Amino acid sequence: MLDWLYTAISWVLARWHSLWSLVFDDPEAGTGLSGLAWALSIVFLVVTVRVILFPLFVKQVKSQRAMQELQPEITRLRKQYGSDRQGFAVAMQKLQKERNVSPLAGCLPILPQIPIFLSLFHVLRRLAPNAQGLYGWDEPLTNEAAVAPFFGAPISSSFSMSGAKEQAILEVASYANIRVVAFVLILIMSLTTFFTQKQIMRRSGPVEGQAAMVQKMLLYVMPIGLFVSGFIFPIGVLLYWFTNNLWTLGQQFFILRKMPPPGSDAAKARAAAEKPAVDPKALAPRPGAKPVRPKNGRTAAPASTVDTANPTGDTTAGDTAGDTAAGEPTTHDTTADDAPTATGATAASSGGASAAARSSGGRPRTGGARGSQGPANRGKRKRR
User: Fold this and answer.
1) How many whole angstroms separate alpha carbon 242 and alpha carbon 226?
2) From the first residue on, what is the mean pLDDT of each consecutive set of 10 residues in the chain (384 residues)?
3) According to its UniProt record, where is this protein mainly located (predicted)?
4) How high is the pLDDT of residue 113?
5) CA triplet 246, 256, 54: central angle to 5 degrees?
6) How many CB atoms lie within 10 A of CB 249?
């Protein structure tokens, strides 16, 4: 049923092998250069697949970012509907449709890689020395791929083998060499899977509840599962998985720098860097323009109008100091205060003093300041 997929994978491998054989001047089967050509064919099979899937990967990241931005609204809907799961599901679908967000977009890059991995696993497991041609390969090409060494271990061999394939491979390689190479690749595959999953958690941003538990479980379950199952994987499949993990690490590092998860330190630093700088000169009023009043409703006076001797504007203290400096006595003239005056006259004189103060630029006259002390000296006569 999946023979068409096996044939497609075999065809891509054969094309890359033809290119690298041309580069290495068509090396003889079973030599180191022949093994390098087949190893590079597997590596560039990964490159071919991941380049094709890169647009889906970008769509996956954008979908995850959109879902993260919807979290506050999803929390509000969950509180609004409470135990009404059907109503919450309908509201969620409506919200996702309005924001053009698809939860399935996060699985797009993973789904196509599963059949490709299984196809390569099937093709390499069926390879064996002196076997018939399969999936579009002739017998010489099939035999060359079966005995192609990777650090002395054929790419079709695995840590655990049995049957006729085991006997055929042990004729061209030793079990010790195969198991050492396979075990090292299994360890590297498991470690790179762990770091890849950890990087995926960074890319997804902070999560809570059940999603956090699933992420933590995958962080440890996937590497352990691959470590156990890696003992039956052919060397070529281990090389494929290791290369795929390296590509994923580099790709996610690039995405995390270009599109950091919202709320992370990198996202805040990027937002601060993209914020336009404010030029202080642009905030200053233009020449002749009316200054903008601050929130307290007062406008700062120019420095040239501030009295350095009396910066607070206290008229009583300032006038008294001025009179003393001029040599005038501080005793006030109360002759005019001996006669009784009406309230209206007092108000008129006060109004006149205020008008005189306003006409003199906001500073009351000295006499006005002395006159303001009249009520305290009323009824006293000036001594002669």
Assistant:
1) 11
2) 85 93 89 92 92 83 75 82 83 80 66 84 85 85 91 92 87 91 94 86 62 76 91 93 91 78 64 66 68 58 49 47 42 40 40 43 46 51 52
3) membrane
4) 80
5) 60
6) 15
Unique residue bearing structure tokens 């336009």: 276
Distance from chain centroid for Cα 243: 26
By residue count, the chain amounts to 384
Q: Where are the beta strands (DSSP E) in the chain?
A: 149-150, 153-154
Cα dihedral angle (102, 106, 110, 115), rounded to 10 degrees? -20
Alpha carbon distance 224, 237 (integer Å): 17
The amino acid that residue 166 corresponds to is: E
Nearest by Cα to 13 from 31, 39, 32: 39
Q: Which residues of 15-42 are buried (b: 16+ CB within 10 A; e: fewer)?
A: ebbeebbeeeeebebbeebbbbbbbbbb
The alpha carbon dihedral of 307, 312, 314, 319 has a sign of negative
Q: How far is CA 50 from the centre of its chain?
A: 23
Joined tokens for residue 78: 């969950």
Place of tokens 């001025």: 322
What is the predicted pLDDT for the residue at 330?
42
